[in-house]
Amino acid sequence: MAYTRKDVSTLTAGEKRRFVKALLELKRRGEYDEFVRTHIEYYVADGDGGLRTAHMAPSFLPWHRQFLLQLEDALRRIDDSVSVPYWDWTRDRTAKSAPWTRDLLGGTGRAGDRRVMDGPFAYGEGNWTLKEGVTDGAYLTRDLGRVREPLELPTRSDVEWALKDTAYDVSPWDSTVTRGFRNKLEGWGTGRGAPSWRNHNRVHRWVGGAMVGGASVNDPVFWMHHAYIDLLWSRWQQRHREHRYQPAKPPAPGTAQYRRVVARHEPLPPWDLTPDQLEDHARIYRYG
After folding, report:
1. Tens of pLDDT along 119-159?
2. What is the CATH number of the domain that holds 23?
3. Are 107 and 144 in contact (CB under 8 A)?
4. What is the DSSP secondary structure assignment for residue 8, as one 8-state letter?
5. 97: which DSSP letter?
6. Strands in the chain per DSSP E
């Protein structure tokens, strides 16, 4: 029977406690850091050689769908009542709203080093030491809204701009494309700096700290953010039922993207699953 992923703003006190407890137990066992390592490994940019699966590629959405499912499976082995809530950042838009409460994720970082000081994932609580990352910092950091260079979260109109695009993705299947739902949602825009950060990417920048870069999984908000991204993909699928994941066939030998992106029926590393197999989640979970 399918379980439900709820809006984080609707969680009861008990649901928050169980979610936090399961995450902390996963961290205590050392399993959580495996997820951080996986994301770092597969955070491959356009300019790097080889296959891209997690970012700047059509498989951004199915890759993170499976990544979320793996995390959720691990949590549910600890407590089968737990699922990953989603954070609708078009509605909960301030550093004081869900999910930034003391009983869930805690708030922003302090001035100076951006260290998170409250909530169950604060370094001072002793349960959330960062062990995998691109820096040697041991504590979780955030800069909600970017105090020195303020940034707004994406709006409903920003999301609608992506949702109304009928194409899933288009050639050359990377961060430079200006058409297609995938990159409009992933958020690699033209230009430099804040104006180029759209939707998914802008949220990572708005949270700041650990959420910027390949080790962003170190902040548990990563999962709530990507659950909402997954929900938006579901809405796009419902709206454009005649359109599917692209490319349907692998790029041809001799082209720039040959063996660099995953086609619909090709295995999606590090799992033995294809984007085609990950398009329908209805038998596993639904959104409340």
Report:
1. 999 999 999 999 998 677 899 999 999 999 999 999 999 99
2. 1.10.1280.10
3. yes
4. G
5. S
6. 3-5, 285-287
CB contact at 8 A, 48 and 175: no
C-alpha 207/C-alpha 137 separation (Å) is: 17
Q: What six digits make up the tokens of 13? A: 């006190």
Grouping H, G, I as helix, E, B as strand and the rest as coil, residue 197 is strand
**Consecutive H or E run containing 3:** strand 3-5
How many domains does the chain fold into?
1
Residue 264 belongs to domain spanning: 3-287
Question: Residues 98, 92: contact at Cβ < 8 Å?
Answer: yes
Contact between 223 and 20 (Cβ < 8 Å): no
Look at the pTM and tell me if it is higher than 0.90.
yes
Q: What is the DSSP letter of 152?
A: P
Q: Which helix (H) or strand (E) holds 207?
A: helix 199-207
Phi and psi of 116, rounded to 5°?
Answer: -75, 130
